[in-house]
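In the design runs reported in the main text, the only information available to the sequence generator was the tokenized backbone. The following block is the verbatim input for one such run; it is reproduced so that readers can re-run the procedure and compare outputs position by position.
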């Protein structure tokens, strides 16, 4: 029993005390780490009041948290972390006529964008993390974004909010605005007096920059005789109260936009160009300097080819207006200003959406490259948020280059130059004491520079632990008023006590995620990783929180999208595994149930690795942990059963169709669920009456064939292509649905290709996903032995199963690092991609048919992700509806388990709903288990895309 048990029993939401959950939320996207006492997921305002009462009683700090995407460390603390994203995440009301919406703090901007599609309205502030950032987090930091030079900050759009104060009382800001001073709650009347007695002093104390989130915003605290706290709580970072409801205004979205791309030889010219263009009211101007461009060009040949040589920086200058003429006029005016002043003669005007997207892709692609740079030095969010008057930009640039140059620190610079706000990120190794010792001199130097230029040390990301130490010096005349404000609203100093008025006394060199004392060792010793590769992979995660996106903007993470539980987030695995290898969690916990509760939330879809800015390979790390567990305790019996499809097919395939009617009933299914954990609600998988090998042996008279050892060889019908293809059908097309394999062979034969079909062996990925590395290695070796020198003789190794393709292209190399496996990876191609490359050689008949196609996760992470869609769209008379949706939820054998059945259906519900409402005659996908899920819960037949093509021959 602990003191927290009493609180847990009183909450409608959740409270977690276990070491794994605490480490999951000990970090955010900043450089810091603070292990909380416990983590709360409140369900309502009443829960918040109970948490604050408990904190007062036990003298515990309380730290409100959104998605953890903040870079300043303002969501971290040693007390109770309160996360709103799991339960308090609703859109309460969307009023399109009234141009407003109300939401709980855990509601995300990406979800609002979805809800507003087609309405003509939008919420203008657009932080780079907006797709996954929560409105509570954005309001608490008063976030802005690339277009805020025209549209302002989040706080500018706040209409109302409900806030729980530390005494447990709930205030509504609009209610306070309706009262005169005498009718205000007694505890808030001092705020009114604080402003009234210091109004002139307050209004003069702030630097002359529009974008300033440093300290508390006391300006206009009293307006027309009424207390207006909207500006004060915007950017207060959870230090004054806990927000439980927000109401924001929406505005009409301009229908047209344009973009000027200008390349400059020096940063001074671009700064002067920005100052001249601002009167044209651009919606945003972004800069990328030579350091960032150099890294981007070095790491991405496509970016290198897209940009001229010998440039120092580029500006992306955007305009949006309600008419195309106004957009074009402003863009041309901006271009003329640049040319007439000889700032640059290399410009491009992009008017079409497609052209603009191509140029914005440069900006979007360049920054993630920073997170993928190899080596111990990483780009750090340390001094990236200062804002200076635009007419002082030249001095700011010169000062930054001199400061970091004198310290010998490499850096990159990019950001919202039109706001005077530059994201300057030094490259440092925080495991190195020398680099840690540089943190304070860099931060001190930047503050002194910014302050001397009349700027603000924090422009849009908040103060947090990075900039709170400088607030007193930023506001020497009114810092005492900040302290009084904190005392009035949080007299017990419970809420984020280190932030803003607490001045983050731990400093910049303490409580770091990494530090000079950080050490790590590889506690997992199995073939999935070699040497220190496991440690390197774990430490690549920088905590940005993109993996918690809940919209279709990403495919990752399907389990998180369905549960919104931090344990499901890919970053949670990285946080816990980093704690394990560094000794923050005892090594004996490596086999604890709590750890595997988290690891088992990974279904190995691979989407996080594919879409993560740092390309952290979470599935591989989970495989390594599971492999160590399986090595110590042995695989679970059900895992052994579910990964033995090819063995079971060889033993029972000839008569399973006879047995199926006898066992396909509730009695046998429920018995199987009790004994093996396989869901009784799943349709049983039946092996085909005749396997692929048998069909090739006697049921394809139209194809000339012969058997040679381990292969069925199918010579080309013509010499049109002359390609030699080793076709790996996988377990599904070999034993369960040979029709897919027969259709593919028919198409390749028609293309004039010679096909070699080996006897069936599993690709090994199902075993690897369960940690059964020995069995997976055996499967790889069986296939390689069977193929012999055929790998070198063929032009391609083709697959029709997306999972088999992923195994051959990448996963085999986890366990077998030989040249022959690298050759297999190089030659493997998805079947529809092979066909698409040679479709000109086919004579196709027109077929009137509507097809709804689902891209499997394991195909989406491969370079040929669009090949099946492209192939289907090329078929005459076929109407294709690409189902833009989440994961199907089956995830191989994961969805077959009774314990996962409900979640599997929930994950796949988006796909099933879109398939059922598509109006299509047929569903199509390349994945066997996606096919099973779609067939189980849709009334439509589901086939492989190559089967549809074969019917058109």
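Verbatim output:
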């Amino acid at each position: 029993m602990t003191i927290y048990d009493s609180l847990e029993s009183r909450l409608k939401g959740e409270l977690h005390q276990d070491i794994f959950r605490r480490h999951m939320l000990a970090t955010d996207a900043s450089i810091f780490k603070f292990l909380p006492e416990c983590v709360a997921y409140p369900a309502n305002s009443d829960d918040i009041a109970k948490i604050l009462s408990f904190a007062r009683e036990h003298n515990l700090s309380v730290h409100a948290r959104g998605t953890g995407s903040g870079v300043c460390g303002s969501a971290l603390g040693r007390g109770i972390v309160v996360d709103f994203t799991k339960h308090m995440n609703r859109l309460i009301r969307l009023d399109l006529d009234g141009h407003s919406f109300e939401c709980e703090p855990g509601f995300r901007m990406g979800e609002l964008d979805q809800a507003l599609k087609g309405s003509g309205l939008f919420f203008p502030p657009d932080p780079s993390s907006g797709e996954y950032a929560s409105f509570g987090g954005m309001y608490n930091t008063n976030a802005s974004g690339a277009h805020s030079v025209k549209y302002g900050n989040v706080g500018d759009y706040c209409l109302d909010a409900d806030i729980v104060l530390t005494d447990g009382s709930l205030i509504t800001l609009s209610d306070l605005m309706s009262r005169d001073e005498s009718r205000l709650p007694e505890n808030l009347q001092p705020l009114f007096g604080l402003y009234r007695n210091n109004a002139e002093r307050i209004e003069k104390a702030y630097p002359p920059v529009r974008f300033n989130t440093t300290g508390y915003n006391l300006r206009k605290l009293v307006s027309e005789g009424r207390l207006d706290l909207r500006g004060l709580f915007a950017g207060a970072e959870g230090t004054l109260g806990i927000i439980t409801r927000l109401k924001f205004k929406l505005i009409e979205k301009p229908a047209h936009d344009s973009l000027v791309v200008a390349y400059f030889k020096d940063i001074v010219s671009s700064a002067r160009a920005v100052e001249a263009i601002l009167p044209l009211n651009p919606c945003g101007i972004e800069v990328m300097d030579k350091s960032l461009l150099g890294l981007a060009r070095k790491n991405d040949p496509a970016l290198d080819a897209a940009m001229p040589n010998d440039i120092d920086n580029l500006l992306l200058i955007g305009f949006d207006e309600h008419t195309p003429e106004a957009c074009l006029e402003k863009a041309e005016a901006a271009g003329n200003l640049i040319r007439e002043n000889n700032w640059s003669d290399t410009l491009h005007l992009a008017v079409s959406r497609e052209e603009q997207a191509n140029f914005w892709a440069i900006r979007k692609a360049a920054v993630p490259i920073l997170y993928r740079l190899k080596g111990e030095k990483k780009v750090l969010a340390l001094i990236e948020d200062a804002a200076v008057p635009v007419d002082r930009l030249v001095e700011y640039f010169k000062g930054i280059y001199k400061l970091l140059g004198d310290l010998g620190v490499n850096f990159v610079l990019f950001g919202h130059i039109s706001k005077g706000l530059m994201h300057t990120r030094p490259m440092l190794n925080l495991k190195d004491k020398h680099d840690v010792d540089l943190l304070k001199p860099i931060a001190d130097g930047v503050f002194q520079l910014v302050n001397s230029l009349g700027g603000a040390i924090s422009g849009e990301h908040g103060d947090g632990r990075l900039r709170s130490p400088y607030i007193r010096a930023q506001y020497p005349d009114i810092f005492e008023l900040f302290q009084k404000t904190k005392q009035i609203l949080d007299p017990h100093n419970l809420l984020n006590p280190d932030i803003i008025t607490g001045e983050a006394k731990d400093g910049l060199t303490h409580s770091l995620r990494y530090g000079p004392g950080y050490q790590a060792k590889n506690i997992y010793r199995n073939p999935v990783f070699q040497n220190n590769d496991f440690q390197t992979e774990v430490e690549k995660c920088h905590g940005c929180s993109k993996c918690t996106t809940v919209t279709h903007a990403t495919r990752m993470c399907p389990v998180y999208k369905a549960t919104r539980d931090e344990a499901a987030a890919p970053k949670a695995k990285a946080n816990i595994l980093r704690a394990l290898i560094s000794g923050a969690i005892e090594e004996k916990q490596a086999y604890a149930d709590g750890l595997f509760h988290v690891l088992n939330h990974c279904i190995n879809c691979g989407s996080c690795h594919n879409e993560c800015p740092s390309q952290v390979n979470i599935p591989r790390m989970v495989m390594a942990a599971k492999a160590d567990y399986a090595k110590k305790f042995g695989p679970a019996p059900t895992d052994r059963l579910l990964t033995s499809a090819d063995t079971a097919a060889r033993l029972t395939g000839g008569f399973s169709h006879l047995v199926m009617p006898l066992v396909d009933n509730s009695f046998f299914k429920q018995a199987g669920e009790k004994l093996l954990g396989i869901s009784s609600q799943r349709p049983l998988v039946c092996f085909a009456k005749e396997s692929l090998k048998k069909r090739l042996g006697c049921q394809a008279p139209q194809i000339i064939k012969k058997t040679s050892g381990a292969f069925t060889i199918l010579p080309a019908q013509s010499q049109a292509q002359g390609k030699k293809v080793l076709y790996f059908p996988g377990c599904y097309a070999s034993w369960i649905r040979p029709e897919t394999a027969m259709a593919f062979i028919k198409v390749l034969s028609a293309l004039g290709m010679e096909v070699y079909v080996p006897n069936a062996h599993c690709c090994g990925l199902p075993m690897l996903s369960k940690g059964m590395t020995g069995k997976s290695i055996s499967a790889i070796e069986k296939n390689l032995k069977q193929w012999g020198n055929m790998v070198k003789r063929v032009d391609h190794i083709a697959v029709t199963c997306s999972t088999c393709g992923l195994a051959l292209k990448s996963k085999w190399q986890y366990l077998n690092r030989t040249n022959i496996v690298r050759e297999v990876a190089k030659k493997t191609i998805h079947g529809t991609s092979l066909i698409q490359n040679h479709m000109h050689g086919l004579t196709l008949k027109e077929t009137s048919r509507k097809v709804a196609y689902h891209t499997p996760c394991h195909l989406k992470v491969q370079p040929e992700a669009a090949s099946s869609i492209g192939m289907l769209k090329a078929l005459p008379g076929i109407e294709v509806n690409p189902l833009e949706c989440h994961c199907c939820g089956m995830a191989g054998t994961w969805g077959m388990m009774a314990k996962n059945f409900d979640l599997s259906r929930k994950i796949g519900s988006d796909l099933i709903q879109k398939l059922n409402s598509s109006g299509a005659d047929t569903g199509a996908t390349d994945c066997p288990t996606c096919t099973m899920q779609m067939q189980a819960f849709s009334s439509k037949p589901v086939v492989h895309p190559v089967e549809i093509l074969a019917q058109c021959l």
